[in-house]
């Protein structure tokens, strides 16, 4: 229907001028030249006034008798498709710096104190302690694997320092059958779902027990059993994939949700805009896209401000507040599943560690800046303060847990390091469901080549053919 304007009021006019009765319609009826007559003949109290006479200057005059007519006044608004605007006679450019930024939702202050008790998620002791333990276990694993890369034991690694709250808070609010499309800094989400330390280590070492069979570089985790889609290196590739998966769930009415994690650097990729136009996402704004700070990444108010332009309900949350992330993710999931709509969450946090082992962040930010965030707004310290205040945690428990954490990680680390690499023939499998002839020929050639020149290859470091 072509929308002409919004009906404001109608008046019944009498030739004798003895009465003038005005009523205001409660419903927002929209009128057009094509459907006005139909509306008038079908809607009470206009049903007895069927004939449309003319339309001019925002009024519809309807003949109701030989000497009486009804005047319908409408609000004159632009009728351009996709617009909800009003007319203006002023030249006014929208200036982004004149608007206040989107507020950041939080539950705890920096001391770990609940600000408004109504926002306390009221999680039981077992769950809150588990959240803290997963955050600290992730932190311990990061330290050991980072150092192992520096020692040349693995080729690459990316830490999650400072972002543990966004991982655990969001993961704890999701259902186990929800699908996760991560970027490359969401190991905590996978850890929350029960991905074992052994599997983390096997993947980083690319050994024979690696679920990916040694084909991916370190930190590119994936688990079919835990509904965590394998990480890809190129930025934003996971975003349109996640949208497609979510659309399939929507059509199936499965009650499942898809969560896509990405960084503010990814939001500048073309795939991100395609996904926004067809999507639901969770963004992690950690202050830097490798070496590019956010103020150079974009001129607008972060990533959440883009959501409304794509018709996406959006919210910004303190990513260092694990309870705030939990509340927002839980509410977003319920809204997304019940109404089949996308939600954009921008979790504001800070990447304390280097971008990866290939990066030296001291080249583009000061040590004092990092130290400030580490000492004043670390999500682990904030949650520990909360635990202590609730008498769920104390120094003795902290000491024992730290020792247990390190022991668990080191045991998995030692086992993974001793295992051989997958059989080199795995290179040729799993590309096609049925191996085509040209791949078979390549495999045969490689087998003959390795057999002839075996002394030049470290065959003993690879698993034997099963």
TrEMBL record:
Cofactor: thiamine diphosphate
All residue ranges annotated as the Dehydrogenase E1 component domain in the record: 133-423
Keyword Protein transport recorded: no
Annotated Gene Ontology cellular component terms: mitochondrial matrix
UniProt-listed Gene3D superfamilies: 3.40.50.970
GO molecular function, one term: metal ion binding
Location within or outside the cell: Mitochondrion matrix
Keywords: Metal-binding, Mitochondrion, Oxidoreductase, Potassium, Thiamine pyrophosphate, Transit peptide
Identification of the protein by name: 2-oxoisovalerate dehydrogenase subunit alpha
Source organism of the structure: Armadillidium nasatum
Organism taxonomic ancestry: Eukaryota, Metazoa, Ecdysozoa, Arthropoda, Crustacea
Gene that encodes it: BCKDHA
């Amino acid at each position: 229907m072509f929308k002409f304007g919004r009906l404001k009021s109608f008046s019944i006019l009498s030739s004798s001028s003895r009465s003038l009765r005005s009523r205001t319609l409660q419903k927002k009826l929209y009128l057009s030249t094509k459907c006005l007559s139909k509306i008038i003949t079908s809607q009470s109290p206009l049903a007895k006034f069927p004939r449309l006479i003319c339309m001019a200057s925002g009024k519809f005059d309807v003949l109701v008798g030989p000497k009486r007519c009804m005047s319908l006044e409408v609000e004159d608004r632009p009728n351009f498709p996709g617009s909800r605007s009003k007319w203006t006679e002023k030249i006014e450019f929208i200036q982004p710096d004149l608007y206040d930024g989107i507020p950041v939702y939080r539950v705890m202050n920096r001391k770990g104190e609940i600000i408004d008790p109504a926002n306390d998620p009221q999680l039981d002791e077992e769950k809150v302690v588990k959240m803290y333990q997963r955050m600290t276990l992730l932190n311990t694993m990061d330290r050991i694997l980072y150092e192992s890369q520096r020692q040349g034991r693995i080729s690459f690694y990316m830490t999650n320092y400072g972002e543990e709250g966004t991982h655990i808070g969001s993961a704890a609010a999701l259902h186990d059958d929800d699908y996760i499309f991560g970027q490359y800094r969401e190991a905590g989400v996978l850890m929350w779902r029960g991905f074992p330390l052994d599997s983390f280590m096997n993947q980083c070492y690319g050994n024979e027990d690696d679920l990916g069979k040694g084909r991916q570089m370190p930190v590119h985790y994936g688990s079919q059993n835990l509904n965590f889609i394998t990480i890809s290196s190129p930025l934003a590739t996971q975003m349109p994939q996640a949208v497609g998966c979510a659309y399939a769930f929507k059509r199936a009415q499965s009650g499942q949700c898809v969560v896509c994690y990405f960084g503010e650097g990814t939001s500048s990729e073309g795939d991100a805009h395609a996904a926004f136009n067809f999507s639901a996402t969770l963004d992690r704004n950690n202050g830097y896209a490798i070496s590019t700070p956010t103020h150079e990444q974009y001129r607008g108010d972060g990533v959440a401000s883009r959501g409304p332009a794509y018709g996406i309900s959006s919210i910004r949350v303190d990513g260092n507040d694990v309870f705030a992330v939990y509340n927002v993710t839980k509410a977003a999931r319920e809204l997304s599943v019940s109404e089949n709509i996308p939600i954009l969450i921008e979790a504001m946090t800070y990447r304390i560690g280097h971008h990866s082992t290939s990066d030296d962040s001291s080249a583009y930010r000061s040590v004092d800046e990092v130290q400030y965030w580490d000492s004043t707004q670390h999500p682990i310290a904030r949650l520990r303060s909360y635990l202590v205040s609730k008498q769920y945690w104390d120094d003795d428990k902290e000491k024992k847990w730290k020792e247990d954490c390190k022991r668990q990680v080191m045991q998995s680390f030692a086992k993974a390091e001793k295992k051989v690499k997958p059989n080199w023939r795995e290179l040729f499998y799993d590309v096609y469901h049925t191996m085509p002839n040209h791949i078979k020929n390549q495999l045969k050639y490689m087998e003959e080549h390795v057999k002839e020149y075996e002394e030049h290859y470290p065959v003993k470091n690879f698993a034997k053919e099963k």
